[in-house]
Amino acid sequence: MTQIPPNNSKPLQRFQDEVDLTQVLTVLRRYWVPLLLTPLLLAGTTYLLSQRTPPTYEASTSLMSTVPDTGNSAIAASSITATQLPQGAVDKVVHSRSTYQVIEKLLSESSIPTQTQTRIKRDLQRELATQRFNRLKVKARLDQLQRGVYDLTAVAETPQAAQILATAATQALLEWDLRRAQEGVGRAKRNIQQQLENVNKRIASSEAGSVEQQSLISARGQLILNLSQATAFEEGARGSLTLLAEANAPLAPIAPKPRRNAALVFVLSLFIGGMVALLLDAMRRKIRSTAELLPLNLPALGELPRLPGMTRSQLPEIARAGAFYEPSGFLRVNLLSLVPQSPAIVGVTSARPGEGKSTVAATLATSLATVGKRVLVIDLDLHRPTQHEYWQVIGRPWVALPGAEGGKQTTVIQALQEPHFASAVDVGNGIHFLPAGEGGRHAAAVLSSPAFAQQLRTWSQGYDLVLLDTPPVLALADAFIVGKQADGLILVVESGVTSVPEIQRVEQSFQTTGVRLLGVLVNKVKREREYYYNYGVDSVSSR
């Protein structure tokens, strides 16, 4: 037997990676009803729920962060301005407990309904505890010197409540900033007052008209001057924040927006639905014809039609002159072009049980016999043999296989155990058949033994082609064990049943094991009226 090297083609590209616009449109057209109705239903539900949601209003104020004016000496000498705030300080101050207490006080003094006040205060306390702030937010737009604008935004249930909340937060922030500026001057003023009290005590206890008393009186005058200046500074102190824009009552709510929400839900659900449909189609897509093998970069050997009304024993006749005649001829021609040498050993397998591998093996044997080829069919599906159901075995003669001294009725197991008695049944037309018999438990050991490889080569010498009916590759490893002794394997897939991921797994297994995949045959294809081999026989169901 001439060994042909395994197929070393590049690993197939995942079907999901193929961008096939025709397939995309086909999938979307196939599922257009749920793909359209589901987004419409979700959008309608969103619209109704949004309309029932209480409105939310937003009001905002703007504050500017400035630096002291040092260009005017008169202004600089008569006022104190607080230093610039570090980054993030305003946000921390706004969301502090002291600020919230001021806000709550101002809310209590406002005209906001008591129920709304209670809800806002409860939310503010909860936000303090969770540190997740929604009612009040600060957005800073500053330069490297921390100069710029702070936008303070308040959210409430009514326009008036939003305006008052934003104003209260701004007022609390400005008061804090002013106190920050006054604190330093206040400490200096208190220190001067303490010094002035001490000097007054010393003057009272000193001798009248003495030099010491005169000196203390002079010092007291200077302290009084300093105290008046400190008082002026305290009154003129100002913070680093200046109000730019006051809060106004908003005219329209920021939420909900039923139309916008419904439109977003519609577009998003439509996109997700389409992606899910395409993904599921890629994962579950079934092979229906040889044309769908092209994106997988797999060789196609042909197609066989579905003929449910035919029994297995009728298959050889239909393969010779019926609905299988022309498609089996294409299969025969394609196979002989791949394995032109004689003898040749070819295995027939499938991805899963029930896809028709045994039917294809029997059909191919009959087709080869019609052109004068001598064929030996060996049923190596030792777990679930069915090849004997396709041939008329009873009453047919048994002939010795090449290398055997004499013939008697044997199975594969018996022929390997007693090779000098190995024989096959002559089912006519140049076809010999060696049944599987019983041996499923020992199948792997039998097929992987050196004796099997040796006998297979010996038996092939008397034939043009040996066909091996092997188990499905996704169920058992037997086919790959046999494939190493053969010129290659034919993979049979059932139209509309075998999925793309299953074929990808099988093809990857072929590459891993180094077994040559001769090609793929699509079986049980649903025939159309114009199908080129429509001979009037409706269908067959085969294993």
Automatic annotation (TrEMBL):
Q: Which Pfam families match?
A: CbiA (PF01656)
Q: Which residues form a coiled coil?
A: 178-209
CobQ/CobB/MinD/ParA nucleotide binding domain residues are 348-529
Q: Which SUPFAM superfamilies match?
A: P-loop containing nucleoside triphosphate hydrolases (SSF52540)
The reply to whether Amino-acid biosynthesis figures as a keyword in the UniProt entry is no
Q: InterPro entries this protein is in?
A: Bact_polysacc_biosynth/exp, CobQ/CobB/MinD/ParA_Nub-bd_dom, P-loop_NTPase, Wzc-like_C
Instruction: Give the transmembrane ranges.
Output: 262-280
Is Coiled coil found in the keyword set? yes
The alphabetized UniProt keywords are: ATP-binding, Coiled coil, Membrane, Nucleotide-binding, Transmembrane, Transmembrane helix
Q: What is this protein called?
A: P-loop NTPase
